[in-house]
Amino acid sequence: MRxxxxxxxxxxxxxxxxxxxxxxxxSPRGMRVKERLVASFKIxxxxxxxxxxxxxxxxxxxxxxxxxxxxxxxxxxxxxxKYSSFWRGISDDGVTANSAYGARIFNRYHKIAxxxxxxxxYVKGLLKKDPDSRRAVIHIKDPWDSVDSKLDVPCTLTLQxxxxxxxxxxxxxxxxxxxxxxxxxxxxxFTIMQELMALELGVELGEYIHVSNSLHxxxxxxxxxxxxxxxxxxxxxxxxxxxxxPMPKINELPDTTALHFYEKKxxxxxxxxxxxxxxxxxxxxxxxxxIDMLKIVAFHRCKTLxxxxxxxxxxxxxxxxxxxx
Length: 325
Hints:
alpha/beta, 325 residues, globular, eight-stranded mixed sheet
């Protein structure tokens, strides 16, 4: 299996392979893609999780919004559509999203074991009882999705956790990974979940392993990938990686109720001073890792309101430079 120190290095390699060494050129649902089957890789430092690739134009506000959405167990399309209108068009019922992974991981979910367990708690309890277990699996896609889901079929099959040598490793198994829209956000999200589970279990953070049964890129993104792997662009990415580095260690578990409350409060503000008040209040009880996320929410809200100088102020105040673009 190919190993990388960072997701940035991995991402550039996968882009190059899809451009120059794809295995198949197919058109599922009439949309042309270049594809490689059973693509796998390992990230040795899961905190080095953001794809710091300028040509990709990774959206930090969307990453943050989606992460909060997951952690709070939300599945409302109205909620996540504040960060990307994409979600409005793929809801099967017009209200919820099947790919709201947090609803399946952190809540009882009717499609998973009949709603009889919270998968996160199950895995945590299992590994506390038997650290060597091979049964610590969170299921995302369920057979019922083959019946009920039409527009939004979850791409993730399972997340499997292993404690080995007092380190928590995570293996993500995907039925399908779009390099541009899917993989670039899935890896950061899953590695944060991995770090949170390690924190809950009191073990060190191990390695992240990812297996995509179909790794692909859509035709509308072919030009983006070709731009991404130009030597000058690769140089920019590696320079950013050296400058920004990995995300800081998570020192405290999130208070998801508070995180949900402050996200909603900031999104309801119409001026920067009210947002600053909300963040100041949150700082009294939250670790800076989560405060950074709320500052990015404020950045996004200010941009929506066309308060551009205030938006830049919020973005520049974060403690992790990788959030600054």
